[in-house]
Amino acid sequence: MTSAQTICNELTRVGDIIVAARDLVADGQLINIKPLENEIGRICGDLGGLNATDAERVRPILLALIDDLDRLAAEMRARQSDFEDELRAFSTHSKATTAYTAGAAPRKK
């Protein structure tokens, strides 16, 4: 059985990873959240082994982690929207450039 202190330490470490992930997203970098998802799943499995008193000790850290995850998800959605806007703008620019250069090409007589 995993102790409440061990779980608190693991949740704090995961919180630090989430903060780093948020910084990367803010810098426009892509991140792989699958390892984070796996780690959180493992920790959540350990939570089931806690008694009520220990679970109460872990609760505030777990709630803070949930808030951090919600912020990361919102920032990832916003960044995805930014990427979509950039792609649309690039596509429009590319189409205009193609149309312009096609119109400027010498015509065969």
Walk me through this protein's architecture:
The chain is an all-alpha fold and 109 residues long. Helix content is 83%, strand content 0%. It is built from three helices and no strands. It has helices at 4-26, 34-47, 52-104. Helix 1 (4-26) runs parallel beside helix 3. The chain is rod-shaped, with a radius of gyration of 24 Å. The mean pLDDT is 85.
Compile the SSE list and pairings.
Layout: H1 4-26, H2 34-47, H3 52-104
Helix pairs in contact: 1-2, 1-3
Keywords summarizing the entry:
0% strand, 109 residues, 83% helix
- Our estimate of the beta-strand percent is under 5%
Written as H for each helix and E for each strand, in order along the chain, the element string is: HHH
Secondary structure class reads mainly alpha
**Helical residues, percent:** over 70%
Distance between the termini: 85 Å
Globally, the shape reads rod-shaped
User: Low-confidence spans: pLDDT under 50, at least 5 residues?
Assistant: none
The largest β sheet comes out as:
none
What is the typical, i.e. mean, pLDDT? 85
Q: Given the structure, what is the number of helices?
A: 3
Using the CA coordinates, give the radius of gyration.
24 Å
Work out the number of β strands.
Answer: 0
